[in-house]
16S rRNA (Cytosine(1402)-N(4))-methyltransferase (Thermoflavimicrobium daqui), 195 residues
Amino acid sequence: MHIPSTLSSARKFLSSHLTKASSTVETCVVIDATIGNGHDTLFLAEQVQPNGKVYGFDIQNDAITATRSRLQAANLLPIVELYRLSHDRFDEVLPKVHLGHIQAVMFNLGYLPHGDPSIITQPSTTIAALSKMTHWLASGGIITLALYTGHPGGQEEAASVIKWATSLPAKSFQVMWQQILNRNHAPSLVVIEKK
Ligand SMILES: C[S@@+](CC[C@H](N)C(=O)[O-])C[C@H]1O[C@@H](n2cnc3c(N)ncnc32)[C@H](O)[C@@H]1O
């Protein structure tokens, strides 16, 4: 077995949880908090289809367009709703019926690959989104965060997320931080599981 990359590791956690959740709940509802080019949205849609639902958020039009066509090509657009909206405002559009029933949330922080590198996720909105999402998460549900430190602002954001995640009460959440040690600016992965 090889040590997986940050992204494959996140996907392994999500896939394992969603396979189990799909067998116990009728509609597996998940959130892609940073859709970007839609690779993760497609991954999530594949995990929860045919009965599940994916809500995706990004602040850039290009991300919405790229993700919509990726999902359309895979015939999975019907189970996906995309919003050009900052992820900390997800609760303005998500039906309240999903409160406490979100099975997974995926964050892939930083900037849109091949896009404008100055448009990046910001600690204040990332933490605001996370704080609300912990309430919307189902018992047993997980949040994964891929943290990048190679771009300006990345280190500060990673530090804020780690500080916030460290402060979650251990009686309600299990929190893990995973990092490759022998690479400069290696991305790292935070996984939060709600007990
Ligand atoms: C690293 S990319 C995501 C990659 C993506 N998951 C994929 O599979 O291609 C980060 C994305 O976060 C978006 N973003 C930045 N701030 C955001 C915010 N406040 N709410 C939602 N998305 C945001 C950026 O526009 C960018 O597209």
Summary: The chain has a mean pLDDT of 96. The radius of gyration is 16 Å. The first helix runs from residue 6 to 22. The domain at 6-194 is CATH 3.40.50.150 (Rossmann fold).
